[in-house]
Amino acid sequence: MRTTKGSARAKAKRRLFKRAKGYRGGRRNMIRTVKETLIRAGVFAFRDRRVKKRTYRKLWITRINAACRMRGLRYSQFIHGLNKANIELDRKSLSEIAICDPAGFDMIVETAKEALGA
To answer: Residues 22, 4: contact at Cβ < 8 Å?
Structure first.
């Protein structure tokens, strides 16, 4: 006897429609379109988790560059000076220091300048 997949298929569809909640038009209530949309959404999510990291790094570099230029130094010179002085701070923490603790950032910039001069 032929069996149908009634309850299992209904459950699978419910699961898909639940994930597509909030989408507009057929993307929310047409099964084939829902499947395509969810696959595409997953691809974008995967890609943008990596893009977010790049975007934040770009923001930190911009902030550090602005803070360095206020103190008479370019970003590239500053980073080179830090490497010469063996100061291992990442860009996120440097950006936070530049915003929250300008006096501390002044000391870091001076150290980098001395390392460049030596």
So the answer is: no
Angstrom CA distances, 96 to 4, 28, 61, stand at: 61, 42, 11
Q: Give the pTM.
A: 0.78
Helical pair 91-100 and 31-70, crossing angle rounded to 10 deg: 60
Task: For each of the domains in the chain, give its residue range(s) and CATH number, in order of start.
Answer: 8-117 (1.10.1900.20)
Burial of 32 (0-12, 13-18, 19+ CB in 10 A): exposed
DSSP letter (8 states) at residue 24: -
pLDDT digits (tens, 9 = 90+) for 24-77: 999 999 999 999 999 999 999 999 999 999 999 999 999 999 999 999 999 999
Q: Cα–Cα distance between 105 and 82 in angstroms, integer? A: 12
